[in-house]
Design a protein that fits this description.
Helix 2 packs parallel to helix 3. 70% of the residues lie in helices and 5% in strands. The chain is built from seven helices and three strands. The protein has one domain. By secondary structure, it is mainly alpha-helical.
Length: 206
């Protein structure tokens, strides 16, 4: 995310701008694909995302922003709307329900003092998170490719083309690394519950 912030500042300083604003681009792409979504530009207070249930596109830039980062985010979020949610996203509540059950099982495993149980529980949830990671990769990368392909139609100079390719690569890198990092953090939460269970069971610290 820091890489994207640095690039955003770089494009603004170098005045790499587009002939349309982020709102105009999002609305034009939505009309082009016959998608009935509302575009909400909330500035930095609102993270960029596509809400399939509410049929809304949220942008973290002001509506008049024309810099590369702003229009790329607009096209990216419309890409999510265009492709629709991936299978795991459709069942996300079930996924997080399974995760909460898993945490309770980790707590029980700590109470039972069984290291083998912890390894089995970790392997099962790691597989589920692996599926979630792959699902997220497909979801984010196809939306990023959609954004690049749409913005290619608007760039004419070599400088803008190179900037677009660099921003595209940074977006891909960010959305490959983030799901892995978040998954590792959530899996480490199971170890915390495990250790807490051991403390409650009187077997000491892990």
């Amino acid at each position: 995310m820091k890489v994207l912030d640095v690039l955003k500042d770089a494009w603004e300083k170098r005045r790499i701008v587009f002939p349309v604003t982020c709102r105009e681009l999002a609305e034009a792409l939505l009309r082009e694909n016959s998608l009935n979504y509302e575009v909400v530009c909330g500035g930095s207070r609102v993270p960029g995302r596509c809400d399939w249930k509410r049929r809304a596109i949220y942008l973290s830039y002001e509506s008049e922003n024309r810099c590369l980062a702003a229009v790329f985010q607009a096209a990216h979020e419309v890409g999510h709307a265009f492709h629709g949610p991936m299978p795991v996203v459709r069942a996300l509540s079930l996924f997080w329900g399974a995760y909460l059950v898993w945490l309770l099982l980790c707590l029980w495993g700590g109470l039972a003092w069984s290291e083998g149980t912890w390894r089995l529980l970790l392997a099962v949830m790691a597989c589920l998170f692996g599926v979630r990671i792959v699902d997220s990769w497909f979801d984010e990368l196809r939306a990023t490719r959609y954004a690049r392909n749409q913005l290619k139609k608007l760039v004419v100079g070599d400088t803008e083309k190179r900037a677009l390719q660099l921003h595209f690569a940074a977006y891909c890198l960010t959305h490959i690394v983030l799901p892995v990092s978040f998954s590792a953090a959530f899996l480490s939460g199971g170890r915390v519950f495990w250790c807490f269970g051991k403390l409650l069971g009187g077997s000491g610290i892990c």
